Amino acid sequence: MDRGSECTSHQCRARFKSPGVQEREYTPRTWMFLVVWTTGVLVYSNGLTGDFVHDDISAITTNPDVLGTSTVSQVFFNDFWGRSLWDSLSHKSYRPLTTLTFRFNRFMLGFTPVWFHLVNILLHCCVCTLLLLLLQQLHLQHSTVLSAVLIFTTHPVHTEAVTGVVGRADLLACITYLAAIIVYNRAIERHYRNMEAEGDEGEDEGSAKEWNGRRVTLVADPGTAGRAMWSATRRRMTGIVPEGIGVGEEDEGRRGGGGGEWVLVGRTGVLAGVGTMCKEHALTVLLVCAAWDIILHRRSLCRLSARRPLQPLFRRLFCLSAMGVVILLLRLWMLRGSSPVFSDQDNPASFSPSLLTRTLTFWYLPVLNVWVMLYPWRLSHDWQLGSIPLITSLHDARNIASLVFYASLFLLLRAGALAKGSDSRAVLLGLSLLVFSFLPATNLFFPVGFVMAERILYVPSLGYSLLMGVGVSRVGRVRAPCLLLLLLVFSCRTLHRNTDWNTRETLFLTQNTAPQRQDALQLCQLTEGLRQLRTCQVPLPQSYQIMAGALECPQQPWHPADQHESG
Description:
With 567 residues, this protein is mainly α. The chain has helices at 9-15, 19-22, 30-44, 55-61, 64-67, 72-75, 96-109, 113-136, 142-154, 159-162, 168-200, 224-237, 261-276, 285-296, 298-303, 307-335, 355-374, 398-418, 422-436, 460-472, 479-500, 504-509, 516-531, 542-551, and strands at residues 208-211, 214-217. Among the domains are: 348-476, no CATH class; 504-562, no CATH class. It has a two-stranded antiparallel ribbon. This is DUF1736 domain-containing protein. InterPro entries: TMTC_DUF1736 (IPR013618), TMTC_O-mannosyltransferase (IPR052384).
């Protein structure tokens, strides 16, 4: 036997280190958490003084489920706005856990808005922490992880979800979203640790194995961690363990903690169910988990040469599908055969008689949502009615934007699939988060009660931030200046946008996106609301009175519950 063809386990570890063991140094450090929490608190601190505005009025201040005039059990049979789910006027937004947090907030800290805002800010920081923990599992560099998390932390499009109190539904859903992905990833790792433990049995000191054409001698190794690392390395090199699974990062004494593989898969389903009771689109986390499992095994799936290792993958995918169907059926059962009724001002495109108009407009709306994330300058709290003109012709220039967007999305998917390493997994996971979490808002499966809502982008922006973090890490020497400039611009815009949400008046006066028809509707509602304020001693400006008269605002009292977004 050729002396040069032999190596001991120590020598092989030096040459072929297990990614799981190699990446122990990438565990988030304390300073990273401090940076994220400090940034999150600072950029939203000036939103603490805000009042209840817009949808906060009907979801909190006039909601019997929050005020405590209804029983706790009734919360689970009412929609997000306090109506019975079986009421014909109900919007069918079933978020009882979010409503209970509002109720608990009022009971423990009082009805002062500052405490509601404070809880939202803390929840946002918790989301950023979970994102940090998730990204470190991808074995990305510290700079890439921190870039993605800070971009998410400071993004201005989150002001509606964080500074607007009803955005708590999105915050809670996002917490369960990230927790479910983290738990599911641990389930995959648990499977390969079990395989590793089984493979270690029967390998005696001095035994020789054929490994990829090389004769390898196994020697005694001090400690079980080294044995685990060697087993993980051996299985990686033979193609059994997919790239990106850190099976060697825990020692023998810790393998039994946290539950087995199927227990963790079950916990993923429970988290998805809990998230759905915070906000409905949290159910899509099961699609993201399935996509992540396929991403890790995509090379084995392409080869189709390792059927036995792929059997657990198919079983996990079946379990995810079954849990998703059960949660969806329970959600539909709560509707008792009824469905929400929307008006043409909620979603004009869905009421268009032209199939071409509906198709082109619905294809364009995701483009506009992504553009708001890329260029979050022109923001709006209400995109209803005519805020986004319908696309009625193939000659509309916005169709070009749609073609460019979907072509770019395909090219990005192709690049991520063909690439190798941690960046490839990050790109594919980012696309999964961006696309799957936004599916319920696309009108693809059912019409929704809004044209566009910025708080809906809170979860999809996880994928956007991850893609941006990977992109920033590729710009070379100017990476740090570019990142600092981007974070500075985002932070300033967020701080400025927070002030827009101080009162209903400031929110209306800063409405610079919607056309005049929407401004007129908002003005009508604002003036009617101001007329109900007995403490208001200052007359309305003359320009407001003239416009309100021209609009022929109804004289009957306007109730905020009559006009709100179902998103």
